[in-house]
Specification:
The protein has 153 residues and is of the alpha/beta class. The chain has four helices and five strands. Strands 3-2-1-4-5 form a five-stranded parallel β-sheet. Helix 1 runs parallel beside helix 4.
């Protein structure tokens, strides 16, 4: 699947982004929806509505849940989104290499992408990277930065 130049893609990590480092779900079930904090989900949903961006999941959750399951779990967790894919898991590679691989495979240019993650670095993708402080999660400052990078006021 090749994407047109106008498509906006938000590359999404979950842990540390949609939950904060001290968060522990009320339910001990091991499904993604229980690890999503409602206020952070709503903030991300607002950004996705404002930008029209689709989601590509880079979170480690992509290793245990397929794309359809990620879509279902994110929606159940309160994130209104359209999941169009997940980055490949390339053993031992930095996450930015996996993101770059997905972009190349799908014909997506860097200016179409914003990466939201609590990792420390994104190599050559750095200028499209919104680094999340895992103690705060997807806060207002992060939301504003995503909007700015996508060119939305």
């Amino acid at each position: 699947m090749t994407h047109s130049g106008s498509m906006k893609v938000l590359v999404l990590d979950v842990n540390g982004v949609l939950n904060r480092s001290m968060f522990f779900p009320a339910s001990l079930r091991h499904s993604l929806r229980h690890w999503i904090e409602p206020t952070l989900a709503e903030r991300l949903s607002e950004v996705l509505r404002a930008t029209g961006a689709v989601v590509v999941v880079s979170s480690s959750w992509r290793r245990v849940v397929n794309v359809e399951g990620l879509q279902r779990e994110l929606l159940a967790g309160g994130v209104e989104c359209r999941v169009v894919g997940a980055t490949p898991s390339i053993g031992g590679s930095p996450r930015w290499i996996e993101i770059e691989y997905w972009m190349e495979e799908h014909g997506v240019q860097l200016d179409q992408v914003v990466i939201v993650d609590d990792r420390r670095e994104m190599g050559p993708l750095e200028r499209r990277f919104v680094r999340i402080d895992s103690s705060r999660g997807f806060d207002e400052a992060a939301a504003e930065e995503v909007l700015r990078l996508f060119g939305v006021d």
